[in-house]
Amino acid sequence: MKKSTAITVFMLILALSSISLPLFPLVKAANVEITSISPSTKEGYVGDTVRVVGTVNASSDNYQIVLRKNATEYIVVNATGASGTQVNATFSIPYLPGGNYTLVLQDTSKNVNATSWLYIETAYSVEARDTTTHKALESPAQWREGDSVEIWINVTGTTADKEYAANITVKLPSPKNTTYWVTRKYNTTSKGNFAGFLVSYPNVTAFNGTATLPANTNYTGTYTLALNKTSSKTLATNTFEMWLTNATTYHRLQYVDIRAKGYKTNENVMVKILYGTTLMKNDTVTTNATGFVVANWTVFSNASIGTYTLNITSTRVGLTKTTKNPHDVQNFTVPGFGVNITAKNLAGDFVPNIVIKVFEGDTKVANGTSNSSGLVKATLEIGIYYCNATYRNRKVGERTINVTGVASFDLNCSLTNLRISVFSEDGVRIPEVEIFLSPENQTLTTDINGEAIAHSLLPIWINTSQPYVLNASRYGISFNVTKIPTLFVNATPVAWYNVTIFCPTLKLQITTLNAAGNPITGVTIKVQESTGGLYNESTTGSDGRVVFNFVFGKYLVGVYDAEGIQLNRTIVSLFENENVSIICKLYGLTVSVKVVDYVGQPISGADVILQREDMTTRTAQTQSNGTVTFSSVTGGTFYVTVYLFDQKEPSAEKGYSVEENTTIVIKVDKYLMLIGMPVETSAFIIALIIVLTLVFVLVVEIYRRRRFRSQKNANLTENK
Hints:
Elements: H1 3-17, E1 33-38, E2 43-44, E3 49-55, E4 63-69, E5 72-79, E6 86-92, E7 99-107, E8 112-120, E9 123-129, E10 143-144, E11 149-156, E12 163-171, E13 179-187, E14 194-201, E15 208-209, E16 221-227, E17 236-243, E18 255-260, E19 268-275, E20 278-286, E21 293-298, E22 306-314, E23 328-334, E24 337-344, E25 355-360, E26 363-369, E27 375-380, E28 383-391, E29 394-403, E30 407-412, E31 416-424, E32 434-438, E33 442-445, E34 451-457, E35 468-474, E36 477-484, E37 488-489, E38 492-493, E39 496-503, E40 505-514, E41 524-529, E42 535-539, E43 545-551, E44 553-560, E45 566-574, E46 578-584, E47 589-596, E48 607-612, E49 618-621, E50 627-633, E51 636-643, E52 652-658, E53 662-667, E54 671-674, E55 677-680, H2 681-719
Parallel strand pairs: 2-8, 10-17, 24-30, 31-39, 40-46, 47-53
Antiparallel strand pairs: 1-3, 3-6, 4-5, 4-7, 7-8, 9-11, 11-14, 12-13, 12-16, 13-15, 16-17, 18-21, 19-20, 19-22, 22-23, 24-27, 25-26, 25-28, 28-29, 31-34, 32-33, 32-35, 35-36, 37-38, 40-43, 41-42, 41-44, 44-45, 47-50, 48-49, 48-51, 51-52, 54-55
């Protein structure tokens, strides 16, 4: 191997070792795509909600969702900006003719589409409506025997602009399987829908039937409507009902309008109303010329809440007596009104756990216990009622209420709020004081204003010889007991009864010492109530002491040096005068920093920066032994930075925790000191590798040449 060849190979290896290839990620734009449609069957009726999930090409692209059929497009979603590239949109199927539509997601910013499909089904409905309002009947109104109804249909999603025939059937509750039918034509709109009135029932000239009796509503019960009913399919069904009264509910003094049909002319019938087994009405009525029974009843002024039964029967004897099946029987109710009664104390606050009883005359008609909002809900009819409130079996309030409808009433109770205020001896309000109230067995806590409130107390405890007792404490230690015989002022219960309690003030002496046990002068002592609130601070004198006056409690004590660095922290319980010593072992430490090179040789002349959070930065230069010393340092976490040879970038930087006098060794791996001169370690190693490689190549070449000469001499000797 030639020497030039070896050197070339070596240099090529070094060049290749310094090369790295960056990797560049490829970004691919999202495609326009429909990933899902809900419902998954892709079928629906007009008014149904459809959800389309998909993607567009780029973030914030505008898009539309379109239904397309026979080259006609209907925009159902027009959105400005997708969420990223994601589309998640909903729409209601509009009024359109039924059938299959192409569903298109259009990225209008890039003019790119994705397609799917949606099928609009035909929907049918049929309904009975009132002949006066042309609307569905609303409760409590109801139709009575002999009434007529309008039959309306609604069709969506069918063929546009086309005439259809609707076959309407009405099945009666009696006689069994009696059915009437009629056919009417209707025309759909250009959007494939129809909504409207077709025919009235009973229309004796229009309806054909299975019975000889013309179409009628002579029976109580449920009538069944059907649209295009066949043996195999019915497009739509519904029901309506016929009864005997014009409403399902009535209140006291209201007029009950009664009507029945299907009886013979001038036939005597009995109209009877029962409440349970109590007879409320029992009259004989003669039918008119068309067989109608017409009667009425006014609900009694003292009628009970509940269900009433109306029964109409013929009293005629013989074959001419009308017997209906089902019988003319119907229930109606006297429901009462929702009445809210709210218990309040003398201060107007809601009071829970009050037992409220309601009487009408001597009869108790309602009772309940008030909830957390002081509320008792009752159901009462029109009338005047007496209300009585009791608390712990003691009467605390009463009133009369006049109910004419849904109403709310307040019931004021003779209950008092007890306000307890806690102050220090110098008038400062004290929060977080626990006050145990007996015999209520209730624990109160003063708020930020030093106040605690016990709500809704009896002015005199149940046992009149037993007073209320307040036991005040902080941190579980009692400091005051106060007794209150009654909550009266001038022999009268009051809305608010006020009590003031004073919390004692105690002396707290704090002495600060360093690690050697010597007093520390000029440090700041900060004292804070452990729950927040009370606060004070002071600076130690030559004896390292400060004295505070604080109220009974627990305190967080912190010691800080002149730069605001915390030296120590502790909690002090101040339940009597206290003298506390605090040792600050982090105060006045000596920190040395030694800077060495790659192999541990000292580096002189290095700039060392010692930095601690919230502390003034300190800078010094290493001596010949590579060391710099900082005195009067407050311990904690430090950040040490080293600059070598006037460089702008740091040669080393690292964080350290210091809790005692210590020496920090910082090794600068980048440099190696040679004869007092700094050399970059990497350059030295590369130079060393090159020299060693050259020496190796040179040794190999010398060996090769000597071997070649030896071989040559051997060959010459052999030839001789």
